[in-house]
Amino acid sequence: MDLTAIQSALRDARLDGWLFYDHHHRDPLAYAILGLDPAAHVTRRWFYLIPATGEPRKLVHRIEAGRLDPLPGGRAEYSSWQELEAALADMLAGANRLAMQYSPRNAIMYVSMVDAGTIELLREMGKQIVSSADLVSQFEAVLSEAQIATHYAAQEKIDRILAEAWKPIGTQARGVGTDEFAMVGWFSEAMRREGLIWEHGPNVSCGPNSADSHYEPTPESSRPIRPGDFILIDIWGKLPQPGAGYPASASIYYDITWTGVVAREPTEREQLIFTTVRDARDAAIRVIEQAYADGRPIAGWEADDAARAVIRAAGFGSQFTHRTGHNIGPELHGSGAHLDNLETHDVRLLLPNTCFSVEPGIYLPGEFGVRSEVNMITRPGKAQVTGRIQNQLVRI
């Protein structure tokens, strides 16, 4: 935890403090930002106030009095609920405008961790509770140089794996045969050889299955891959958290999606859908690049609008059923701003030194689906795509 930087950000935002609260690990963001052990045994409520100026303050239950000991600041203890409320009022005396992991109307649910009853209690004390969403982005999603290096290391490995994958897909589809799940196994083995780790997946979708944006093949559901099929591949991974010369839990994901056709040329309809999705992707990229070049702050919803306008203009707006992109960090779906004005109206800014995907898609049930996904990293004065960019359907 960088106390000096947090307090400076609070003063810039004209906030009296940032109030952290947890019970039974309801708020994983608090543990990440404060640097607390996410596996600690927590059965009682605790509060931690970082004021805009001055020393932080802790409020803990007496039977778990040491839970916040790794953090700076004085400690108060309680046992009864009456003691808790009195001690909380004392802790917050003079601090009226407070940030918490809260979002009005649950508009940005990714930061909405504090329960309604706690918000009600604080409001009864006369406190104004505002969303910590931008603070969370600043102190959880902004990456160090070492973290950015891990993203590029993963990018080189995954781009190489994907480039190598097209040949065995095509050879086996024309010969002994293969299927979606078998190719997931091929990708998994290739990623293990490269020393990568990942969450569930990767994903290989064939034909109509590519029209399901969250399809995952199983041995039972796996579809054969044959000449003439349409293929979507979504692959993601990162360096192992400990090791490789980087801090533990610091490595950053790389996440891409490409599409292609087996042993034929694309149909006119496939080419139209791919071109529309590609142009939507590039529209989002351009608006982000231009904002950074101009020194203009840009929110996640603006990039989503840029991509969605292209797809709507082509007549496929109802077939673009998800946000344009998500934040990327040590978790595949990170805690920073998403490119979203569909599922949420994400007003969080795309801050410098953050990473996110750009991945519009069009999904035609019973036919096929196209998603084209790249990753971007923003730097002061510049935003850029971090890996290879697909500009035409792959002929497999």
Structure description:
The chain has 396 residues and is α+β, with helices and mostly antiparallel strands. It folds into 2 domains: 3-139, Creatinase/prolidase N-terminal domain (Creatine Amidinohydrolase, Chain A, domain 1, 3-Layer(aba) Sandwich); 142-395, Creatinase/methionine aminopeptidase superfamily (Creatine Amidinohydrolase, Alpha-Beta Complex), CATH 3.90.230. It has 9 helices and 18 strands. The longest helix has 30 residues, at 145-174. It is elongated, with a radius of gyration of 24 Å. It starts with a helix and ends with a strand.
List the SSEs and their pairings:
Layout: H1 3-12, E1 17-22, H2 28-34, E2 46-51, E3 57-61, E4 74-78, H3 81-91, E5 97-100, H4 116-124, E6 128-131, H5 133-141, H6 145-174, E7 178-179, H7 180-193, E8 203-206, E9 224-225, E10 230-237, E11 254-261, H8 268-294, H9 300-313, E12 327-328, E13 355-358, E14 361-364, E15 368-371, E16 374-379, E17 382-385, E18 394-395
Parallel strand pairs: 1-5, 3-4, 5-6, 11-18
Antiparallel strand pairs: 1-2, 2-3, 7-9, 8-10, 10-11, 12-13, 13-16, 14-15, 16-17
Summarize the structure.
The protein contains nine helices and 18 strands.
**How many DSSP helices?**
9
CATH superfamily of the largest domain: Creatinase/methionine aminopeptidase superfamily
> What portion of residues is helical?
25-40%
| Distance between the first and last residues' Cα | 49 Å
**CATH architecture type of the largest domain:** Alpha-Beta Complex
Unreliable residue runs:
none
- Which sequence of strands runs across the widest sheet? 4-3-2-1-5-6
Rounded to the nearest angstrom, the radius of gyration is 24 Å
> Could you spell the SSE succession in H and E letters?
HEHEEEHEHEHHEHEEEEHHEEEEEEE
Strand tally, please? Answer: 18
Largest sheet: 6 strands, mixed
CATH class of the largest domain: Alpha Beta
Shape: elongated
Count structural domains.
Answer: 2
What is the SS-derived class?
alpha+beta
CATH topology of the largest domain: Creatine Amidinohydrolase
Average the pLDDT over all residues and give the rounded result.
Answer: 94
What proportion strand? 15-25%
